[in-house]
Hints:
By secondary structure, the protein is mainly β. It contains 1 helix and 4 strands. The protein has one helix at residues 2-7, and strands spanning 62-68, 88-92, 110-113, 121-122.
Amino acid sequence: EWELAARGPKGRSYPWGEEPAGPARVNGLFKDDPHPLLAPARNAVYRGEAPCGALHMAGNVSELTQDSFLPIPAGELRDYSNLAESPDVVVRGGNWSRDIPQSFFASLREAFNRETRSNIVGFRVALS
């Protein structure tokens, strides 16, 4: 669900499209960032929204998902939400501590231990 919301039906590389991540698009640790310590929390600061209309799906904090982090089996696409439990959950979207544009790919999934607290991981509340 998160990846579809961020990439849309056309499979964008980033939530806003194909332009690489940088300080105009995401809150990350970029050398030319006009806000090196704290970024304004206004929607107008970062240009670009995901196909679903959501903002800030890359940068700021990585977003927790409900999915356990396990290798995705090869083969046709199917529902992986019922796979065995893992001590790690999937986080998406990259975060403010990253400076490599590929860290903000909408398809990137990273492991995060479900017992850990961190200032680089948060969650999104969504209503469908």
